[in-house]
């Protein structure tokens, strides 16, 4: 169907030379920035808008449109905060982008800053990514030395500072306003919106927040043009190259770059098929926050709109694959435990709801479920939708609601038999005794 | 899960009553010269001192052997001119900042779904048996402590764990035993 795909974002993944500025320049690096600086900032925003690039962090918001919300004028400082928190379970693509091609991200940040006339970027990186952080720090240092960052970006007179900022282990700091709070040195508790960060963001100033992969696309849009970008993908609402992080029961888990919208079944083939020849039972297409899809939905295209129409979401494109030895109750109980741990606790429906989800699912899994539990779970889900401050509450509902809808019999069986019907799988021969 | 023992409680003496922490003369903090230089460099990155708090807490945690005793919190509060209570509030929010003694080596075993689907239960069990202590406890020789952890962003090399700052990937129980035995 699709013509052979040439990697764009990961073209330097096998080229360690690209870690240095000279190596990156040899691969065409920093040409997009030079081109952008020769354009009016608004023209850069228009080009990105025209490309159709949508945010790769989870919500899929159009990047160029987001940039256009930043007020013009120079009376206030403006900021770009690059979201490198990457804590959505199953997601590991941004780490690859930072570790293998740090200058690509710096260039994307610089172009965005020129477009919105921001003079400072903070790259908020999760605290566990110390290796990626060291690589980024080194690349930033070199970029200052080469005159790409600092007082006059590429001799243009435009001033730009880029700083790494390490988080300290909290999923909620990936939420954009939680991230701003955390960047300001506070507990990462999301803010009430509006005002949106584009108006009142970091340090009270207009702020763009974009994911690592979103920004990594930007230099290529400048160099090759919006029309080229739009020619890749399913349709005009789903454009460009995309990284898919696939994990779980597949033979070759990893990050795969394809045109956005590859069908799940083809991605599974790229990843070497099912682990040890198992049979596909279910997959989660977009990180722990996305609803579970079943084997009969394997033909669906992994793009924003197809996934939403199927009742799930593309999210961070973290694809988790489960074979038929997998207990869905146990899997979702583990995700519920995650959300319970990560809820920041500000909103009662989220704080209490995630707690109930973990409690109910754990007792069902342990054979202590009661006949009314599925109904209770449904009502917890209902009470969490649209009643909390940020999207974490609805994210927690995603997998639980789909468990009840798509695997009702499996849940019932746990309760009826007072036991989990799936034997505890052992993965290693010489394991713990 | 964390255990509310005396070690983590805030002794009244370390909370400045009314005056900000910097105003009161206090014990000279045990910052190395290198750490002090790092703090200074960090402060230049932000429009407010407060914004440097989390990065500075990371530095303090390294300086104080992997966790943040009250003296470390007081030193951070003083360096950033913040009330100690505010610093405690931030420390308790984040999983990588510790208010309790940890081992010389800190082991974080990922148990989220993708790792679970590739055997993280067995990895967790191996660590538990090998170290012969419970989660969040320190081995009697002070060498190791371990916790289960949420997704560490390395699910393509599942099951995996973090030993201090290093990712150890594609684990098997045998490999885990070898890694743990080789730690100093
Ligand atoms: C609970 C929660 C966690 C999130 N975690 C991340 C994350 O780790 N990385 C990320 O890029 N976006 C994350 N997001 C989405 C951000 O809020 C935001 O939409 C995104 O960074 C915007 O960038 P984009 O438009 O380029 O995708 C999270 C959202 C929520 C509600
Ligand atoms: S929805 Fe949950 S995570 Fe988000 S602000 Fe409310 S309590 Fe915090
Ligand atoms: S689930 Fe273990 S690294 Fe992602």
Key structural traits:
heterodimer, A: 433 residues, alpha/beta, 5-stranded mixed beta sheet, 4-stranded parallel beta sheet, 17 helices, globular, B: 184 residues, alpha+beta, 4-stranded mixed beta sheet, 7 helices, 10% strand, disordered N terminus, binds flavin mononucleotide, binds iron/sulfur cluster, binds FE2/S2 (inorganic) cluster
Short description:
The complex is a heterodimer of chains A (433) and B (184). Chain A is α/β, with parallel strands linked by helices and 433 residues long.
Protein model, in words:
- The complex is a heterodimer of chains A (433) and B (184).
- Chain A has 433 residues and is of the alpha/beta class.
- Chain A is built from 17 helices and eleven strands.
- Chain A has helices spanning 21-26, 31-37, 41-51, 63-68, 93-100, 102-116, 130-145, 176-183, 212-224, 226-230, 264-270, 304-309, 328-342, 348-365, 373-384, 392-406, 408-417, and strands spanning 79-84, 120-125, 161-166, 207-211, 233-235, 238-239, 241-248, 254-259, 280-284, 293-294, 318-323.
- Chain A has a five-stranded mixed β-sheet with strand order 8-7-11-9-10, with helices on both faces.
- In chain A, strand 2 (120-125), helix 7 and strand 3 form a beta-alpha-beta unit.
- In chain A, helix 13 (328-342) runs antiparallel to helix 14.
- The N and C termini of chain A lie far apart (50 Å).
- The mean pLDDT of chain A is 96.
- Chain B has 184 residues and is an alpha+beta fold.
- Chain B is built from seven helices and four strands.
- Chain B has helices at residues 33-43, 53-63, 70-80, 84-91, 113-116, 120-131, 173-182, and strands at residues 105-110, 144-149, 161-163, 166-168.
- In chain B, strands 2-1-3-4 form a four-stranded mixed β-sheet, covered by helices on one side.
- In chain B, helix 2 runs antiparallel to helix 3 (70-80).
- Chain B starts with 32 loop residues before the first helix and ends with a helix.
- Residues 1-28 of chain B have low confidence and may be disordered.
- The chains are: A alpha/beta (433), B alpha+beta (184).
- The interface between A and B is large, with 63 and 50 residues.
- Bound molecules: flavin mononucleotide, iron/sulfur cluster and FE2/S2 (inorganic) cluster.
- FE2/S2 (inorganic) cluster is lined by residues 110, 112, 114-115, 151-155, 158, 160 of chain B.
- The site of flavin mononucleotide (FMN) has 24 residues of chain A, from strand 4 and helix 16.
């Amino acid at each position: 169907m699709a013509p052979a795909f040439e990697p764009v974002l990961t073209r330097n993944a096998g080229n360690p030379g690209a870690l240095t500025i000279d190596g990156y320049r040899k691969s065409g690096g920093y040409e997009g920035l030079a081109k952008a600086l020769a354009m009016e900032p608004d023209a850069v925003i228009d080009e990105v808008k025209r490309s159709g690039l949508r945010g790769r962090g989870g919500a899929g918001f159009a990047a160029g449109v987001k940039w256009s919300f930043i007020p013009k004028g120079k009376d206030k400082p403006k900021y770009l905060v690059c979201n490198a928190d990457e804590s959505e379970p199953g997601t590991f693509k941004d780490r690859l982008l930072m570790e293998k091609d740090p200058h690509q991200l710096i260039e994307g940040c610089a172009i965005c800053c020129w477009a919105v006339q921001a003079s400072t970027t903070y790259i908020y990186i999760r605290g566990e990514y110390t290796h990626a952080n060291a690589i980024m720090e080194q690349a930033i240092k070199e970029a200052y030395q080469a005159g790409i960052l600092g007082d006059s970006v590429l001799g243009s007179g435009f001033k730009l500072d880029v700083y790494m900022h390490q988080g300290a282990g909290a999923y909620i700091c990936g939420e954009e306003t939680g991230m701003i709070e955390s960047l300001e040195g506070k507990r990462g508790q999301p803010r009430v919106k509006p005002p949106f960060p584009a108006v009142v963001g970091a340090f009270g100033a207009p702020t763009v927040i974009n994911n690592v992969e979103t920004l990594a696309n930007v230099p290529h849009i400048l160099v090759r043009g919006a029309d080229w970008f739009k020619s890749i993908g399913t349709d005009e609402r789903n454009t460009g190259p995309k990284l898919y992080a696939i994990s779980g029961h597949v033979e070759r888990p990893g990050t795969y770059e394809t045109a956005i919208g590859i069908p799940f079944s083809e991605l599974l083939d790229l990843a070497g098929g099912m682990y040890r020849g198992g049979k596909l039972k279910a997959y989660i297409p977009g990180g722990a926050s996305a609803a579970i899809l079943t084997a009969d939905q394997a033909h669906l295209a992994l793009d924003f709109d197809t996934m939403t129409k199927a009742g799930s979401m593309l999210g961070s494109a973290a694809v988790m694959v489960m074979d038929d030895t997998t207990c869905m109750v146990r899997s979702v109980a583990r995700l519920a435990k995650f959300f319970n741990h990560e809820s920041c606790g500000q909103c009662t429906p989220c704080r209490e709801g995630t707690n109930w989800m973990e409690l109910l699912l754990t007792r069902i899994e342990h054979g202590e479920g009661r006949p009314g539990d599925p109904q209770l779970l449904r009502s917890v889900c209902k009470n969490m939708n649209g009643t909390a401050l940020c999207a974490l509450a609805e994210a927690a509902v995603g997998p639980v609601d789909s468990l009840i809808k798509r695997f009702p019999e499996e849940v019932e069986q746990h309760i009826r038999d007072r036991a989990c019907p799936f034997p505890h799988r052992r993965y290693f021969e010489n394991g713990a005794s | 899960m964390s255990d509310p023992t005396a070690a983590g409680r805030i002794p009244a003496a370390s909370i400045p009553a009314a005056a900000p922490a910097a105003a009161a003369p206090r014990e000279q903090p045990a910052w190395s010269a290198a750490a002090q230089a790092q703090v200074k460099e960090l402060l230049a990155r932000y429009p407010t001192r407060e914004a440097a708090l989390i990065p500075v807490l990371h530095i303090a945690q390294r300086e104080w052997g992997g966790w943040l005793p009250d003296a470390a919190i007081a030193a951070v509060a003083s360096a950033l001119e913040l009330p100690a209570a505010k610093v405690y509030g931030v420390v308790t929010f984040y999983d990588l900042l510790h208010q309790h003694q940890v081992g010389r080596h800190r082991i974080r075993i990922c148990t989220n779904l993708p790792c679970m689907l590739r055997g993280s239960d067995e990895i967790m069990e191996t660590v538990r048996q090998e170290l012969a202590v419970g989660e969040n406890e320190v081995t009697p020789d002070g060498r190791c402590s371990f916790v289960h952890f949420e997704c560490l962003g390395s699910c393509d090399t599942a099951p995996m764990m973090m030993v201090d700052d290093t990712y150890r990937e594609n684990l098997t129980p045998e490999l885990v035993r070898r890694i743990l035995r080789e730690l100093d």
